[in-house]
Amino acid sequence: MGAGFLEAVYQECMAIEFAAQDIPFSALRPLALSYKGHELRQSYVPDFICFDRIVVELKATREIAPEHRAQTINYLHAAGLKLGLLINFGAMPGVRIERFAL
Prior knowledge:
The protein has 102 residues and is of the alpha+beta class. Helices cover 27% and strands 35% of the residues.
């Protein structure tokens, strides 16, 4: 698609690509949060979880900011997972990918 589209466009394209590549995924699956043993009404919603093991978070911004990294790490904690990918489609000249391992 190239740069310049909204994040939702890239989400839809990634879902098509995951399906075409037979990559098992769930899209926008809410992750429950708890505090001191109490389940919160708020939840985290990562863009994708692939293979039930990898959080994939998409962005469409000029550059990845510290809060984007923190968001991905928080998704990993909330999901109880250890591997995450933060993919920025808005970067120039191309896509930027950062890997997180807990």
